[in-house]
């Protein structure tokens, strides 16, 4: 309506300027009427315009929202971080390129199934650099992360990292960190129970999705590397054996944990014990991921005080591949203080001589020959150990 009145005044002014002085009442009336007439013809035009604008706008919104629905549907299947043009699955690269984030929306059964798919052809139609997959099993934070960052620096082509935390934990590593976006979808873990092995399987399965991962090392937030990256890479990749502890131990903590209900798949003579902290190759990792038979047996019949993470993989792999295991772990742990948990080392424990003696803390064989270096990793280290470790790393650890 304000539009109409401004038109009216405009017409009036025009008339005054034209000096039509014979302004009779009629004329005034007419001039008053004319703008109103004009207004009457203008109004429907405007309404029509506004109406058309609304129609165009509505069309626009509906087209946009249709696209949004499509987009959101894709989003619920996979997080944005996974969406890339490579996901068209039309190029070889889409299969072999490692994604920038390891997050996905598969549940455990979907993941294990997917991870058990393996190429059977021996030759790769691309340059495959075998990588070591470092799998961190932690409640949440990685207090020794700065030491690991230093360790990994400059070796990007030869490693990958996977982190399993409590499901409600969100890590906040900056994009410059090697741990950035390496957290996998996780489940709660109870110490000494099957959920621990399930978490390890989850880590292995996630790592298996990357075809270039050839070696798989399980670590905790309290682990440190005892040598530089190149040394560890060569030691692991040139070994004829996988470093899974596996001993036939008498007594209550060994054979004493066996249950005859585990037969016929697992006999007493096949029962093995080994450290939870392992290094295995791709073949063994696939066996762990695809297993359903032994999994059921151990889940049902190996419960505390049978600590399943010390028996399930060592026993099963010893049955499948007795000659592929080094039957020792690469991770040094101090059990000398007794009890259910190993010793933890803090700031005051970290000296040059302490760190130097760890790799050769016991005698061992490497590719069937006596070796000076038996351990490549060690645990457990408290957050307070970080500072002296960082200081001594260049001199003693070699990075
Ligand atoms: C995963 O999802 C599938 C399909 O919804 C379901 O059949 C299966 O039981 C789920 N597995 C787990 C471990 O939740
Ligand atoms: C996460 O869950 C665990 C138990 O599963 C609980 O102890 C802890 O307090 C939770 N943390 C947060 C940040 O909610």
From TrEMBL:
Principal subcellular localisation of the protein: membrane
A GO MF term: glycosyltransferase activity
Pfam families hit by this protein: Branch
Keyword set, alphabetical order: Glycoprotein, Glycosyltransferase, Membrane, Transferase, Transmembrane, Transmembrane helix
Transmembrane stretches, start-end: 50-69
Membrane topology note: Single-pass type II membrane protein
Localization, UniProt: Membrane
Name of the protein in question: Core-2/I-branching beta-1,6-N-acetylglucosaminyltransferase family protein
Gene Ontology cellular component terms for the protein in this record: membrane
């Amino acid at each position: 309506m304000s539009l109409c009145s401004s038109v009216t005044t405009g017409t009036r002014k025009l008339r005054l300027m034209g000096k039509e002085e014979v302004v009779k009442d009629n004329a005034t009336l007419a001039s008053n009427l004319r703008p109103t007439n004009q207004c009457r013809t203008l109004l429907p035009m405007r309404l029509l315009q506004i109406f058309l604008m609304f129609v165009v706008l509505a069309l626009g919104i509906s087209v946009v929202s249709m696209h949004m629905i499509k987009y959101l549907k894709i989003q619920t299947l996979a997080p944005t971080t996974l969406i890339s043009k490579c996901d068209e699955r039309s190029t070889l690269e889409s299969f072999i390129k490692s994604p920038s984030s390891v997050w996905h929306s598969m549940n455990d059964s979907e993941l294990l199934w997917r991870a058990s798919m393996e190429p059977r052809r021996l030759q790769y139609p691309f340059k495959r650099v075998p990588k070591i997959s470092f799998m961190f099993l932690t409640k949440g934070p990685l207090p020794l992360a700065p030491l690991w960052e230093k360790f990994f620096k400059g070796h990007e082509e030869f490693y990958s990292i996977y982190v399993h935390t409590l499901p409600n934990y969100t890590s906040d590593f900056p994009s410059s960190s090697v741990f950035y976006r390496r957290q996998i979808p996780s489940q709660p873990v109870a110490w000494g129970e099957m959920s621990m092995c399930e978490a390890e399987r989850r880590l292995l399965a996630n790592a298996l999705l990357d075809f270039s991962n050839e070696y798989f090392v399980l670590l905790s937030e309290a682990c440190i590397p005892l040598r530089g990256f190149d040394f560890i890479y060569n030691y692991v990749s040139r070994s004829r054996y996988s470093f899974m502890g596996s001993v036939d131990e008498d007594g209550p903590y060994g054979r004493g944990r066996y249950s005859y209900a585990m037969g016929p798949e697992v006999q007493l003579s096949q029962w093995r014990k080994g450290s939870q902290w392992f290094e295995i190759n791709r073949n063994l990792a696939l066996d762990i991921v695809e297993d359903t038979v032994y999994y059921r047996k151990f889940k049902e019949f190996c419960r505390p005080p049978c600590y399943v993470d010390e028996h399930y993989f060592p026993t099963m792999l010893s049955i499948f591949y007795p000659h592929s295991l080094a039957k020792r772990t690469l991770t040094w742990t101090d059990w000398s203080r007794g009890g259910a948990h190993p010793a933890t080392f803090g700031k005051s424990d970290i000296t040059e001589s302490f760190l130097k003696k760890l790799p050769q803390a016991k005698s061992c064989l490497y590719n069937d020959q006596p070796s000076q270096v038996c351990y490549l990793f060690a645990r457990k280290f408290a957050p307070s150990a970080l500072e002296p470790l960082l200081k001594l790393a260049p001199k003693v650890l070699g990075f």
